[in-house]
Design brief:
about 210 residues; Rossmann fold; Arc Repressor Mutant, subunit A; 2 domains; 5-stranded parallel beta sheet; 10 helices; about 15% strand
């Protein structure tokens, strides 16, 4: 049986995934974690065949966790299950080392299919995302949307700004200095063509609201 680790900060999501996996004869849940530190510890100790990872985790991001797991044990396959915009994050999670991305809105019907596909050595993405990536390859490197130009850390800071998290709390959550947070904010403003902190906050809040919709 393939052993699956679930890393998600919502207990109900973990329970739902565990039930779906438990009803599948060739899969079993070997562990569950609700934050980045626990996820990394269990991935190291249990060495699952596959880890299902959310992008929003306490103590760090899912992208950070993917990179850490990849650095420690390249044998663990990883599948991201998240509410975030697939068009914005799918390529990032693949670049970090994951083998697939599934939106949580589709997960109840497709999570087992996604797990099986990744375990078989393939990449799992939605049909629309696969088509988008293939079109980009055919057409050449398409012009990036402005948000796409942000680095993974900048995108994380941008999202936290939109969630109303202060710079001090950001620094503590990400284990960074206030100076580093301010540097990221300056880079974000430059990349997005924004001239003030007020414009940055307004843009970030609007973006977060769009993601929630």
């Amino acid at each position: 049986m393939a052993r699956i680790l679930i890393v998600d900060d919502h207990p109900l999501v973990r329970t739902g995934f565990a039930q779906l996996i438990g009803d599948t004869h060739e899969l079993e849940v070997c562990g569950e974690a609700g934050d980045m530190a626990s996820g990394l510890e269990l991935a190291t100790q249990l060495k699952p065949d596959l880890a299902i990872i959310d992008l929003s985790l306490a103590g760090g991001s899912g992208l950070d966790l993917i990179e850490h797991i990849k650095a420690r044990d390249s044998e663990v396959l990883m599948l991201v299950a998240s509410m975030h915009d697939e068009a914005l994050y799918a390529e990032r999670v693949l670049a970090a080392g994951a083998r697939g991305y599934i939106n949580k809105q589709e997960a109840q019907d497709k999570i087992i299919k996604a797990i099986r596909q990744v375990l078989s050595g393939k990449v799992y993405l939605s049909e629309r995302m696969t088509e988008r990536m293939l079109s980009g390859m055919v057409d050449g490197k398409a012009e990036k949307r402005d948000i796409d130009s942000l680095s993974n850390r900048e995108l994380q800071v941008f999202e936290m700004i939109g969630q109303g998290i202060s710079s001090n709390n950001m620094a503590g959550h990400l284990n960074l200095s206030i100076k580093t947070i301010e540097t990221h904010q300056a880079h974000i403003k430059k990349k997005l063509g924004l001239s003030s902190g007020h414009e940055l906050t307004h843009r970030a809040v609007r973006w977060v609201l769009e993601q929630d919709q």
